[in-house]
Description:
Blueprint: E1 2-10, E2 15-22, H1 25-33, E3 37-44, H2 51-57, H3 62-77, H4 82-92, H5 96-110, H6 115-119, H7 128-140, H8 143-199, H9 206-220, H10 222-241, H11 243-253, H12 260-280, H13 285-294, H14 299-313, H15 318-322, H16 331-343, H17 346-401
Antiparallel strand pairs: 1-2, 1-3
Helix pairs in contact: 3-4, 3-8, 4-5, 7-8, 8-9, 8-12, 8-17, 9-17, 10-11, 12-13, 12-17, 13-14, 16-17
Amino acid sequence: MSQFLYTALHQDNSYRKGVVDARSAKAATVALEQQRLLVINIRRIEHPRFAWLQVAINRISAQDRIFITRNLHTMLQAGIGLDRAVKTTAEQVTNAKLRATLEDIWNRLQQGQAFHSALSQYPQYFSSFYTNLVRVGESSGKLDDILQSLLEKQERDAVLRSKVRSAMIYPCIIITALIAMITIMMLFVIPRVTGVLTSYNVSLPLATRILIATSNFFLHRWYVVISGIALLVIGFRAWVRSPRGRLQWDNLMLRLPLLQTIIQEFNLALFVRSLSALLHSGIQLDQAMILAGSSCSQRPYQEATKLGVRFVQKGVPLSEVLKGSPRLFPPLTLRMVEVGEQTGKLDTMLRRLATVYEESVQTALTNLSSIVEPILLVLVGLTVGFVAISVLTPIWKFSATI
Length: 402
């Protein structure tokens, strides 16, 4: 399947440009004619070398979606029409993939298609949560207000996810440096020292023998090490991608002592803020639960909300439904939801609860960094100390015999 850049004229004499996927230029032309377009010119988009890098650069990120939402909200609030707002936004972006997507959405709007329907053609970029809120905004005539709610949620979610990623950078750097150091020692340093150590007429300590045996295994059986690591990575990825494996992995993550609270509150912040935005927009509670649950990163939360929908549909209060999963929804969540239901201000209470959890996650991440950093430094020190003792002990023994 190739991509073709086309210029065409619609039956209403409007000028169209865009990108279409097809097997050949002829097939692309036929597909465009079926859309009542008269093709003026069409050419295949030649993908350069390192196209995979170009795709990675041009992928649509969360910041791109925030940019789109902010632009559309600002222009709609200023009284600019939706189709013109989408066209203007497309002209302002530098991401080629994003520009082509927005231009196609604009073309669909020109053909009379609803905005939420055009967005739903790109589920990989615009989630069902996003498109459903836009649908509500279009039907109620308050699309600019809905876009403002979406913008606030996206910005808060982006800040929260950024905090989590930032907290993981330092541990990842230390662990990567430790693995690189061990690899260099096993492949280059220890083999040079081994000849010297074995030349001494002394019995080598256990630590030294372990170090030499490990180095020899890395040096002469490197293909076993690489194959083993590759099989472990492939097997782990296949297991995690399966529904059962993903559920088991997420349950395991929710039981880890240091990460349990952070993961729980991170998912709760996403869930309650999404649910608040959906309820505030007028979406029914049962449908809002499904959409809000899909915004969670952990499968147990997604499954719990799906199971709870049937009880909500039968009239069971949300606070009672959430009590069925005490491991996922702590007492604070249950009390706030119950108060919101009693006062008729559930969306407001959920918004306040989301703020509480977001601040709690940021504090917990700061505390976690202060705990993990010394642990990693001690691990590095123990590794260096083990290598130093393994190498120096035989030398001390040889010196004592002189």
